[in-house]
Write a structure and sequence with these properties.
It holds the Pfam family p450. This is Cytochrome P450. Its cofactor is heme. InterPro entries: Cyt_P450, Cyt_P450_CS, Cyt_P450_E_grp-IV, Cyt_P450_sf. The chain is an alpha+beta fold. It folds into two domains: 31 residues; 397 residues, Cytochrome P450 (Cytochrome p450). Strands 1-2-8-5-3 form a five-stranded mixed β-sheet. Strands 4-12-9 form a three-stranded antiparallel β-sheet. The radius of gyration is 24 Å and the shape is globular. The structure holds protoporphyrin IX containing FE.
């Protein structure tokens, strides 16, 4: 009996100790600059705001939305576990944030992210910013050459996928993840590491495993709950990180070996996959440590593209009754111009569909977060103290009826009609739509890519990959949900993910036998 009492009092002691330590850690991270002059979207006091912060873990987008509805043209603050965030809701504030120099408002890295779960996507870590921008620039500049590779890999991945290759003209139930993840992994790996790696069984299995583990949302929620420093530390031991370390070893060995075999002239004539270009820079420019930047970018690309494509696929399955126009547009353009970047650029209906999907189901509720390096004063006189984190509420703005009429309705042609209005020569062979309406154009109203100097540099590549994948599915398959209703999204902190475990029905389009894959 006494032993039992001892045990329970030790347990109480440990639980209290851990709770105190946790609160101390979180409190130390939440010690914030003086923001009393900024209205809170909910509670101001420490204890109540702490409860709001806990709620934000599960209902982050809804809390931002509520604050936005109250303070649409202003700014307000929102409690998160790590710190207060100042949300700039009004257009003028966002415009001023966009124009601010980095000496005033700087981008932040994952280590100081208010939204720890974003670490899952590693979308803001920059092991080496210079190398990262060199690699993304290389991909963007080579997009006209890479487009065919993307399509080629998609066709090969479709043939290798048991789910897709066995699809017939009868509906078949599959798990969303089984379609989304393998296709995205193969396409991104092909562009980063070339055909040899993308088709290598050992490599592609490792790549797939690390991606599936990386998309484990329960882990993300767990990380979001932890103080940032502890979460960062723990993520080093994750299983996806271990797979990535193995991949890194394979890559390092490959680069070392190729360095010996490849002559500089060779590389100059083969600028396609990113790895080849990296080898060139290792030889000519003496670039070092590039493997980890390459892997981090590759992982960023795979995760964000898989999640965005998941949302697009689910929107297609929910709005599948009238894909006829989109299919016809794709067929006509491909018949005329082949699978070229030019043809993809002119697929306005597909462009609009993806743009609308990202408007309504963007993965980042707060895509742009900046830190005030020094006190920052907006033109209305509101001053943000040094070390304050400022964020742009993309999703709330995307659902604002004054910015988007009937904002709550999925209108697949919303942006293609804008395109048609902006088109200079609307004849079937030379369509030159205005860039203003493109999927990749970032404005104070359209924010999935963030805004300003640090808006996503991978978005041109992302747009081509997403459009090729959508076009491929629309041409060869039909998809639907049993009751035509999208499964609810999964909310992790300020992120909004498609439920990749959800079931979706798929069948091959009429007249598309196995041999049809890749014909158009
Ligand atoms: C649908 C897919 C994607 C979405 C929604 C997305 C979104 C974003 C957002 C919101 C940011 C932060 C922007 C800001 O701070 O204002 C960002 C940054 C970044 N993204 Fe993406 N992204 C996607 C795909 C990609 C891909 C495929 C790549 C690489 C090939 C990439 C590379 C980067 C890099 C390097 C940054 C950091 C830029 C900087 O700090 O200067 N992204 N992205």
């Amino acid at each position: 009996m006494e032993d039992g009492e001892d045990e329970s009092s030790s347990l109480i002691f440990i639980v209290c100790g851990v709770a105190i330590l946790y609160i101390a850690l979180v409190k130390s991270e939440r010690s914030h600059p003086n923001l009393r002059h900024i209205t809170s979207s909910a509670n101001q006091g420490y204890i109540l705001s702490f409860l709001d912060a806990l709620r934000a873990l599960f209902q982050g987008p809804a809390l931002v939305q509520k604050g936005y509805e109250k303070h649409r043209v202003n700014l307000f603050k929102l409690a998160t576990l790590q710190r207060w965030l100042v949300i700039v809701a009004g257009t003028q504030y966002i415009e001023e944030l966009r124009k601010a120099s980095e000496d005033d408002l700087a981008p932040i890295d994952a280590a100081s992210q208010p939204d720890m779960s974003r670490y899952l996507l590693r979308h803001h870590t920059t092991p080496n910013m210079q190398q990262e921008s060199f690699l993304t620039r290389h991909i963007t500049q080579n997009l006209p050459f890479l487009t065919l590779d993307i399509k080629d890999e998609l066709v090969a991945a479709t043939t290798d996928s048991s789910v897709l290759s066995s699809a017939s003209e009868d509906w078949k139930e599959i798990c969303g993840r089984d379609l989304v993840v393998p296709l995205t992994a193969r396409v991104v790996d092909r562009i980063f590491f070339g055909r040899k790696f993308a088709r290598n069984k050992r490599y592609s299995q490792l790549s797939l495993n690390s991606m599936i583990k990386g998309l484990d949302f329960k882990r993300a929620l767990f990380l979001a709950f932890l103080p940032t420093s502890f979460g960062n530390f723990l993520s080093w031991f994750s299983r996806s990180r271990q797979d990535e370390q193995q991949i890194q070893k394979i890559l390092t060995a490959y680069i070392r070996e190729e360095k010996e075999n490849v002559s500089i002239n060779d590389v100059n004539h083969k600028p396609r996959d990113v790895l080849f270009q990296v080898i060139h820079n290792v030889i000519v420019g003496g670039m070092t440590g590039v493997e980890s930047t390459l892997l981090s970018l590759n992982s960023t690309a795979k995760h964000t593209l898989a999640l965005a494509f998941g949302h697009i696929l689910y929107d297609l399955a929910t709005n599948s009754t009238d894909t006829g126009f989109m299919r016809q547009e794709i067929k006509d353009l491909v018949a005329r111009e082949g699978w070229s970047k030019n043809a993809l650029d002119k697929m306005y209906i597909a462009d609009s569909f993806i743009k609308e999907s990202m408007r309504m189901n963007g993965i980042f509720t707060l895509p742009t977060i900046r830190k005030a390096v020094q006190p920052f004063t907006f033109s209305d006189g509101t001053t943000i103290p040094q070390n304050t984190f400022i964020a742009v509420p993309a999703t709330a703005r995307h659902y604002d009826d004054t910015l988007y009429p009937s904002a709550g309705t999925f209108d697949r042609l919303r942006f293609s009609s804008s395109h048609e209005k902006g088109v200079h020569h609307h004849c079937s062979t030379s369509r030159t739509g205005s860039v203003q309406y493109n999927l990749t154009t970032s404005t104070t109203e359209y924010l999935p890519w963030g805004i300003g100097q640090h808006a996503c540099p991978g978005r041109f590549f992302a747009a081509i990959v997403l459009k090729t994948m959508l076009a491929h599915v629309v041409l060869h398959y039909e998809v639907k949900f049993e009751d035509r209703k999208r499964p609810p999204n999964i909310i992790v902190d300020m992120n909004c993910f498609p439920d990749l475990e959800a079931k979706i029905f798929i069948k091959r389009s009429k007249g598309e036998g196995n041999g049809g894959i890749g014909r158009t």
